[in-house]
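A quick aside before the break. I want you to see a complete sequence-to-structure record at least once, exactly as it would be stored in a machine-readable document. Don't worry about memorizing anything.
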Amino acid sequence: MMGYWYGPCGYGGWGLQWSISWIALLVLGFYLLFRALSPKEEDRALKLLRERYARGEIDQETFERMKRDLS
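That is the input. The structure line, written in tokens, reads:
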């Protein structure tokens, strides 16, 4: 007697549901691992400030003061 409760997925489809849950957890785990290991993007304001200092638009004292204000 192969019915709803004794089909290929186990008790009422629980086998399939657990399989999908494990796959979803694995995908989530890989996503979180990828995000943790990817390089972090620097704050845009600090990046622009460093570029201005590198081009010589501002002096070191101004750079340090503005950097401290951004922190």
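Two observations worth writing down. The radius of gyration is 27 Å. The mean pLDDT is 81. We'll return to this after the break.
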